[in-house]
Specification:
- With 358 residues, the protein is an alpha/beta fold.
- It has one domain: 3-Layer(aba) Sandwich (Rossmann fold), CATH 3.40.50.1820.
- The protein is built from 11 helices and 13 strands.
- The strands form 2 sheets. Strands 5-6-3-4-8-7-9-10-11-12 form a 10-stranded mixed sheet, sandwiched between helices. Strands 1-2-13 form a 3-stranded antiparallel sheet, with no helix packed on it.
- Helix 1 packs across helix 11 and helix 3 packs across helix 5.
- The two termini are 23 Å apart.
- The N terminus and C terminus are likely disordered.
């Protein structure tokens, strides 16, 4: 629905059927007899007013405002699934999740067992091949839960991932990972950030190799966004060349902090994909961690005191401001997804009615 501006002469207020406001939000734990528990955060277009809450807010990081457990808007909505980076969590990309929910998207992001902030079990971390399956499982669940999140438009499903999450969503797009190829590449780049994770992620584990090299493509996904991904040199050029859905590849200009050179990671994707299916751009002023949530003043010192070295997650390029980088990224990601999915966001936002003074 579009925003209908009706000025009422009987009062000093005007009423609008749609205004930009806080999206609905639910935190769900998926469980099953044959699968591990999976915590999933879901933002969605909401149709009722209610008490708002800041989620993901803590002494170091800025959260986003949502309306917990609100009723979903009627009608069907595109779905965006998000995959976080190594030892990250769904809060890291809450800024883009909330922004896309305000444009009418249902947005769902799981915490990947073993490689999430709150579950760094080394045994589970070596089951890297389960990450793409987590995302497909989330698509199943959200699509089957219209009463909770609204109706999913199954012709408009997309995926976005940062760092190891970028590897995850590219796997879902059809990229095939060859552990032996990655390990060989790392012999020449032993100091690269992702090469230091070979053991931790089980890439050299005989049991995992067949599973890691499997075809994880999910044909329901119609567009993909990769944010400064890692493990890229393990993708076979043949599989990248065969991808036939739109892919937006965004890399950080400053790669020193995470030691994931854009040319060897995001640039490798761009070089091996058909030009008509990908758009590649290096984001000025961004570091690998600029794609994470906003840091509060003093966050670097706080993080350094708690875990020396972690302060890098709040560092951006010289003279760059993360809020400006995010604003730039939201515009690029939104335009790409809306175009790729042939979707027009509702004018004025996604929530029903409030009033404002003239």
């Amino acid at each position: 629905m579009t925003c209908i501006r009706i000025f009422c002469l009987l009062s000093v207020f005007f009423y609008c059927l749609q205004v930009q406001a806080s999206p609905g939000f639910r935190l769900i734990t998926l469980s099953g007899q044959k699968s591990e528990e999976l915590d999933v955060a879901v933002w969605y277009p909401a149709s009722s007013e209610g008490m708002t809450e800041d989620i993901g807010n803590n002494p170091a990081f800025v959260g986003v405002t949502v309306t917990p457990n609100a009723l979903p808007l009627p009608g069907s909505h595109p779905l965006l699934v998000i995959s976080h980076g190594y030892n990250g969590n769904w809060r890291n990309l809450s800024w883009i999740a909330a922004a896309m929910a305000e444009e009418g998207y249902i947005v769902a992001s799981p915490d990947h067992p073993g490689t999430t902030t709150f579950d760094q079990n080394p045994i589970e971390a070596k089951k890297l091949w389960r990450r793409p399956r987590d995302i497909s499982r989330v698509i199943d669940f959200v699509s089957d839960s219209p009463a909770l999140f609204g109706v999913t438009d199954k012709s408009r499903i997309s995926a976005l991932g940062h760092s190891l999450g970028g590897w995850t969503v590219m796997s879902l797009a059809g990229a095939r990972f060859a552990p032996s190829v990655f390990i060989k590449d790392c012999q020449n780049h032993s100091k690269r950030g992702d090469c230091r994770l070979i053991e931790k992620l089980g890439i050299n584990d005989t049991y995992s190799m067949d599973k890691l090299s499997a075809n994880n493509r999910d044909a329901r996904i119609r567009a993909v966004v990769s944010l400064d991904l890692g493990l890229t040199p393990g993708f076979t050029p043949q599989s990248l060349n065969a991808i036939n859905i739109p892919v937006l590849i965004l890399a950080a200009q400053g790669d020193q902090l995470a030691e994931l050179p854009a040319g060897q990671e995001s640039g490798y994707l761009a070089a091996n994909m058909k030009p008509n299916w990908r758009h590649y751009e290096v984001i000025d002023g961004a570091t690998h961690f600029s794609f994470m949530q906003l840091c509060k003043p003093g966050a670097e010192n706080l993080l350094n005191e708690e875990s020396p070295g972690d302060e890098v997650v709040c560092q951006d390029g010289p003279q760059a401001k993360r809020a400006d980088i995010h604003q730039n990224l939201v515009a690029k990601i939104s335009a790409f997804l809306n175009s790729s999915l042939d979707y027009s966001a509702p004018a004025g936002g996604t929530r029903l009615v409030t009033h404002q003074k003239l």
